[in-house]
Amino acid sequence: MFEKYFDSIYDKNRSVKMLGIWGKDGLVLERKAYGDDNLDKDMVGAEIAEILSGISRLSYINDETHIKLETDDSFIWVQTINKDYFLIAITNKDIIFGKLLFYIKQSQKDFLSIL
Q1: What is the pTM of this model?
Q2: Ranges of H-type helices in 59-96
Q3: What single-letter DSSP state applies at residue 69?
């Protein structure tokens, strides 16, 4: 469903380790890994959904809302797509975030048309 868009983002950002779209209920719609790491990607999505739910009770979340988390060897970028879905990008630390965000935003209309 989203694989060709994930591949397009990855082709322009080779530091991406994983891209996926989750519902705010914590269930993954689709994800694709690019390389190996030891991060439990399904659990990350479920936990991020819980964080977004908590934040949405405190303030308004729209398609411009994003969260950036740092681990020992990765960044986790969360970008809301709409009020019900969000994208997670797990990257190496050498990622250029402006470039990544540009290509995520470029694909956002395609994501919305599928959802």
Answers
A1: 0.83
A2: none
A3: E
